[in-house]
Specification:
With 69 residues, the chain is mainly beta. Helices cover 7% and strands 38% of the residues. Residues 2-67 form the DUF6993 domain.
């Protein structure tokens, strides 16, 4: 979330994946996404490595399916 906001995203528009599994374990990767010019900029952190991609917006107008935190 912080990196997205520092890059210019509005905090209220940033979608962040869950960081704990339903069984209470840490997840393997955290993702954050925000809308930029009708596309989703999605960043993922896994094992200390960062990956960023641009994907189309979903029909819902959001970048993630399911819960958003």
């Amino acid at each position: 979330m912080q990196a997205m906001v520092e890059a210019g995203a509005m905090a209220e528009n940033v979608e962040v994946s869950v960081d704990i599994t339903p069984t209470g374990l840490a997840v393997d990767a955290i993702e954050a996404a925000t809308l930029v010019d009708k596309e989703c900029v999605i960043g993922q952190v896994r094992s200390g490595e960062v990956a960023v991609t641009i994907l189309p917006v979903l029909a819902s107008g959001r970048c993630f399916v399911g819960d958003v935190h």
